[in-house]
Amino acid sequence: MSEPxxxxxxxxxxxxxxxxxxxxxxxxTFETIAPYTIEEAYEVxxxxxxxxxxxxxxxxxxxxxxxxxxxxxxxxxxxxxxxAVARAIGEKMVRRHPHVFGDSQVASAEHQxxxxxxxxxxxxxxxxxxxETMAPSALDGVPVALPAxxxxxxxxxxAARVGFDWxxxxxxxxxxxxxxxELRAELDNGSSERQAEEIGDLLFACANLARKAKLDPETxxxxxxxxxxxxxxxxxxxLRDQKRDPKSVPLEELETLWRAAKAEEKxxxxxxxxx
Length: 275
Hints:
By secondary structure, the protein is an all-alpha fold. It has helices at about 5-15, 25, 30-50, 55-75, 80-95, 100, 110-130, 150-160, 170-190, 190-210, 215-240, 250-275.
């Protein structure tokens, strides 16, 4: 084990030591630390999106700390330790890459993706077979704690692997039209509970549309959010230059500024493409 990693493990042991450790670190549990683990993963993704590699180095360190934290709590409870975590992921990578560590061959990255999913499916089947009370399902192993849009896409992907899928985009587009019609009906006279269900069905169908188009719905929505933020800030700045409050500006004028923001966005994209 490398010296920096050994030192990090020793630091975590000291932080968790009931005699002289940090009171806050000592009282943490898997449940209390889990939200920080999720947050750090998102901060890694954010640094990558910004192409800030100094920040990425720091954020990867924060994420590594989360792994060390969970492993130390597991060691204290007698479940496993950091070495077992590293050993297990190493064995998994070898098992899932027989074309690198064995005699199998793959023709392309797409072929490898399919082979990877096949290995994962066999692993889930083996795990389900160890529990006689659990009927195996193609949907096994999709974490409930995933962001909702990401989980919807993964559930659709799993169902598609056993043939439960539209043959092309036409079917999923028709499904979106169907769900939108049902939502309109509920918005007219339905309960808030039914409206929420129909909105959920529509979002689920949109996640499947992204999957069928070979796009990541989570990434697509993040992009839409970034564009919305940039355009809205453009609108705010334009009104600030005029010393006007957005709340007092007619909606029609706000729409005009919004279209101007979109036009500037397209022009900036054109210039980047030409440069």
